[in-house]
Amino acid sequence: MWNKPLHDWLPKSIWQAAVSFVELGAAQSVVHSEGSVRWTSSSSDTYDLVVHSNAGYVIVEFEPLPSVHINEGTLSRIARRMANTDNLEDLCATTTQVIAEAFQFDRVMVYQFDEDKHGCIVGETKQPHLEPYLGLHYPETDIPKIARDIFLKAKSRFISDINPAATALTFNPSLGPTPPHLDLTFDQLRATSP
């Protein structure tokens, strides 16, 4: 597949769905547009393809289908629990709890920036063996400006492995020039900053 453009090996319906997300973003004059499509490869592996259009490039992330399936009933229960909260503190606690339960995450946190760009963990649900971060405060320098800007744009961040092996992006030069800067702001599969 390395030698072929994406539209040559993805099924036509999947490619058309990806293009429609990009065109919709362009029609609405947005800098970033996103959508997702489910695809089962010829080897029977199933993926959610998350399509981004950013700075003129189309980025397709192939996320293996999670083993956890969230159905509409679960989503309704989550929405009801969140709607029944009375204040921001309860909302943060409930949100982290329902996300951790639904997706079986080890830790879910809500991080809040203050007006001076310092931060605090204002909501957390974690496995018992993990050290708690709830209530901890961090100086502005703890999260560099570029990372803060990404959080303010992307709003959420999933980290599936806090100690992954580094994997470089590679480009096939026969398909076009390597971009001088590829903005991965909205990508969920990108590595964390060191």
Produce a short descriptive summary.
The chain is α+β, with helices and mostly antiparallel strands and 194 residues long. It has helices at 6-9, 12-27, 72-83, 88-103, 145-154; strands spanning 32-40, 46-54, 57-64, 107-113, 119-126, 137-138.
Secondary structure topology:
Elements: H1 6-9, H2 12-27, E1 32-40, E2 46-54, E3 57-64, H3 72-83, H4 88-103, E4 107-113, E5 119-126, E6 137-138, H5 145-154
Antiparallel strand pairs: 1-2, 2-3, 4-5, 5-6
Kindly describe this structure.
This protein is an alpha+beta fold. It has 2 domains: 60 residues, no CATH class; 83 residues, Beta-Lactamase (2-Layer Sandwich). It is built from 5 helices and 6 strands, in the order ααβββααβββα. A hairpin with a 5-residue loop joins β1 and β2. α3 runs antiparallel to α4. The chain is globular and about 50 Å long.
